[in-house]
Amino acid sequence: MREFCIEYKHDEMGDTVFRTSKWAHDAKGAVRLLLQKNPDKTGKCIFKRGGTGRIVSVKDITTL
Predict the structure, then answer these.
(1) Domain tally, the chain
(2) N or C: at which end does the chain have fewer Cβ atoms within 10 angstroms?
(3) Domain span including residue 9
(4) Which residues of 28-50 are buried (b: 16+ CB within 10 A; e: fewer)?
């Protein structure tokens, strides 16, 4: 398992960038823990806790 830092924006919150960390086997699995369904072609996504937005970046921050 690796730790990933996910930066994302909510449409309702303007230009504010939020950050969370998730433990998963790969980056795609970490993003799935945050979203209801995968992002569409334009990058829009629906978050599990409501609201829409987009994923800005996903970084592996695991220290070995």
Answers:
(1) 1
(2) C
(3) 2-60
(4) eebbeebbeeeeeeeeebeeeee
